[in-house]
Amino acid sequence: MEIIKNFLEVIINIYSNNPKLLLQTIILITLSILIKIYYIRFRGFMGEFWVKLELRKLPKDKYIILNDIMIKDENGTHQIDHLVLSKFGIFVIEMKNYYGLIKGKEFDNKWCQYLGKNKSYFLNPIHQNFGHIKSLSSLLKLDDKYFISVICFSNQAKIDVKSNSIVTQVDYLNDEILKYKGFLVNNDIKELSKIIIQNNIGDKSLRKQHIKDIHVKIKFDKELENNMICPKCGNELVERNGKYGKFIGCSNFPKCRYIKK
Ligand SMILES: [Zn+2]
Predict the structure, then answer these.
(1) How much distance in Å is there from the Cα of 10 to the middle of ligand 1?
(2) What is the Å distance from ligand 1's center to 240 Cα?
(3) Which residue has the higher pLDDT, 218 or 59?
């Protein structure tokens, strides 16, 4: 008891002699509490922030950078994290702020994130990005061979992904982009970026609707899965034996590679 009392007295002495320090401590504690509460959101924000900062280092006369673009096509809306337009190609960047070990293959339906003993699946971001490229290709009336898919993870992630398309981390993002040196796009990239900006959905309520639509789709897919119907192609889901034991997959394999989580 005596020790605690002495300790508190010392603390009170320090702070009463230095009110500035007290204020600093309060700010620091408040900030750390806020960061803990908003950690996930903050991490996401920082991830986007680092990518933006990195992309800004690209030579401005050769690369046009567009961030957080939302465009609409007949399949719905597409949210594209970052776009880099250049004569060397149009880089479509999907940012994933995931930590831990990331495992997957180019054509798998789902990839896996290992965080210690925890394992969780997420949709293959290459597939997701391919949807974005398709919608951009139809918007710009450009063949999809001019688009380059880039999946970018945070620097803290450890990546074990077999893929021919780019899967990288923030620190290596520009190196990957700068590897493309040959002229690929003949169109005026300023004109292309103008078309994208004109079609960008800036309206907040429309963006909210997009997020709602995604949630409805996930719920709908789950219901189909429960009824043993493949959400991807509509064929029957069946139990199959794989390298790592039994799993539920599409009966239309290998045409459809859907796997139930
Ligand atoms: Zn299927």
Answers:
(1) 69
(2) 13
(3) 59
The alpha carbon of 257 and the centre of ligand 1 are apart by a number of angstroms equal to 6
Last residue of a domain, one of 202, 226, 243: 202
**94/141 same-domain check:** yes
Amino acid type, 64:
I
| Residue 252 burial class via C-beta count within 10 angstroms: exposed 0-12, middle 13-18, buried 19 and up | middle
Residue 162 CA to ligand 1 center (angstroms) comes to 23
- Span 3-23, pLDDT tens digits: 888 888 888 888 888 888 888
Residue 221 CA to ligand 1 centre (angstroms): 12
Question: For residue 80, is pLDDT > 90?
Answer: yes
- 21 exposure class (CB count in 10 Å sphere: 0-12, 13-18, 19+): exposed
Pair (125, 26) in one structural domain: no
In a domain, 8, yes or no: yes
Residue 121 and residue 176 in one domain: yes
Nearest CA-CA partner of 125 in 145, 152, 147: 152
Range of the structural domain that residue 250 is part of = 203-261
- pLDDT per position as a tens digit, 205-217: 888 887 787 778 8
